[in-house]
Design a protein that fits this description.
Strand content: 5-15%
CATH class of the largest domain: Alpha Beta
Bound molecules: tungstopterin, iron/sulfur cluster
Oligomer: single chain
Number of domains: 3
Helix content: 40-55%
Strand order of the largest sheet: 2-1-6-3-4-5
Amino acid sequence: MRGGWTGKILRVDLSRGKSVVQDLDPKAAVEFLGGRGLAIKALWEELRPGTDPLSPDNLLIFATGPLTGLTLPSSGKMVIAAKSPLTGGYGDGNIGTKASVQLKKAGYDAVIVSGKAEEPSMIVIEDDNVEIKSAKDLWGVTTYKAQDELEKEYGKNAGILVIGPAGENLVKISVVTSEKGRAGGRPGMGAVMGSKNLKALVVKGSKEIPLDNPKELARLGAEAYKDVKSKEAYDFWIRQGTMMTIEWAQENSALPTYNFNEAVFEGFDKIGGNAMEKIYKVSQKGCPNCNMPCGNITEIKEGPSEGRTTELDYENVAMNGSNLGIDNMNWVMSLNLYSDEAGLDAISMGSVLAFATEAVEKGVLSKEEVGVNLEWGNGPAMLELAKMIVNREGFGDTLAEGVARAAAKIGNGAERFAMHIKGLEVSAYDCHAYLGMALAYGTSPIGAHHKDAWFISIEVREGRGVASKERVEKLIWMQNTRGGFFESSVTCRLPWVEVGFDLEWYPKFLKAATGLDMTWEDLYIISDRIYSLIRAFWIREKGGWTRNMDYPPVKWFEQPLTKGPLAGTKLDRDSYNQMLDWYYELRGWDSNGIPRKSTLRKLGLEYVIPELEKVVSLSE
Ligand code: PTT
Ligand code: SF4
């Protein structure tokens, strides 16, 4: 096996209490790299179509890539993937954690977990020694407490991934967390872990990660770290991290406000990056191997969690601040802290809370039915309802299913303000004015998340609302770079996105690590392969495909903004349709979004054709 990869995959079957080590197929490594690529390949090949995502048969995959854990900027990341209980399609998330580095050092590229343990358990990996241990004492405790207990037992350097009560209670908007402030797996990866009775994964490694050219990698790494630090944007990034985006989104009418009814918020400055920096920030934290740490540790100044600290990011603050009409940062921080301790996805939490508030406002639900005094800006009521979601109490049980299922259950027009695509709640960018970003959400391979393409940045720079084929080409380039390359080489994309670290470094890193001489053109073919295989997986699971599955919420088309400089703006349906046509054409998919046979063959995915033909007819 080439360097960069360890060449080994650890399989753990919790039903049988057994683990086995397999070789990573070197051809698959070159064709899919790792992370998301490796995950979708395993899910396509091994998961029986129609598998219940919360059944023991689902696979929970923790996957690194050939760049993970190397002494290179921001390489401490990992992909967590499974069939999603929230969307019924492909789901994954990306988490910064010591567990990613430790896993490579323990000698594995990935851990694939199947089955279900008889009692609450944890997997402990120490190099070649793999044990399934009881975690009865940790079941029911918060992610913070579990992290503390496991650190006490295995040491501060151990890689630790844990779920909280949300994942244990199979809340479909639950995540996996690490190190009190890192979370990954928005499409219900916490619930998949909970369904396997798996509370934690602990990993410690002491081996060297094999490298093709260690000297060259060390030279490149040293230069690259220096380069990151020399960037103009570095200083401000260190001060505010992603939190600067609050002010940016407000200025550009993109800040989700009152369940995406508006895109500017009157109290934005109280919850923005500047307020965070001046009033609340106490320290800074980052993922392993990162010299541009972006974790803003802030102190809660009043309320029930007074004196405690929490780590703030833009998405969490926008979704639980402006989107809930809350301009009191202390309550935003309390909600954020709660989501981390419970292991609830902070984005989807903000979305379901806002949805319920709009339902009450519109008279679709009464406050009595909800069980709390739900109204915009009411932090204590929001926190109470969040706790009901995690514990699946009363109306919280309905919201624990995610906004799409909650809306379907409530009926009465509630679907019209449920902000999701393919069942995944929209993350924190309002798209009334952003056609390209709406398409990025519409075509994201996991549902409405910005991970694959933060296209709004291009629209702000180059003009909004432009419907052109060239824009769609750029969107696909962005998806292939972020969702394809960064999710399969598995390293953080923020050095490139946020401080301008040049993309040209990455093929050099890959060459020194693996010996593979790949250009970006070669890497984009891998991305295309991953995108088409993920699409095939969705089609197989859904038993077909229609264009409306790639459509953003109706609110953005039908209800214009009423506030701010862009008041009156809404999305144009014809323009969206046209952009979607171009998107399908450029991806080599037919007019319904189904990959063509010729595309599948070109990408080396001909084995997908007979399977897909069982559920849809494929165009040549
Ligand atoms: C990510 C999503 C995001 S994206 C945020 S804030 W962001 C939310 N964070 C949550 C959280 O925190 N706690 C919680 N209970 N729920 C949360 N849900 C939300 O999850 C994250 C950083 C960030 S901060 C971003 S953009 C970048 N994301 C990357 C990515 O996706 N890929 C990649 N190769 N590099 C990335 N670098 C950046 O990492 P999901 P993290 Mg996250 C507390 O998980 O499912 O992908 O959704 O991983 O370690 O916390 O780092 O403004
Ligand atoms: Fe982690 Fe932030 Fe560094 Fe990326 S930039 S590796 S998210 S600390």
